[in-house]
Amino acid sequence: MNIKNIPNITKAYGEQTKVSKSSKMQSLSSAQRPDEVILSSHAQEVSPHLRALRGMSEVRESKVKELSEKIANGEYKVDSRELAERIIAYSKNERLY
User: For the whole model, what pTM was predicted?
Assistant: First the structure.
């Protein structure tokens, strides 16, 4: 195998290392700056609502208690048609509610 232009090849690699060194210097200077977050006006309006939702329980205690009592008393009835419609809608990734 005969390789020609070795000085040109080494020159290309030398320039590549110069580029990577300068990009490292840029990343260092950006790493020293403090992070900054700027929220849009819409995000500022939504933020209190999101905090309120995060503070809420995922379980509706009153609903669970009501259903538990109905089941215990034998009063809980399932509408089979509505159940079937919801199962089909869910399988199609649609929401009826």
Answer: 0.35
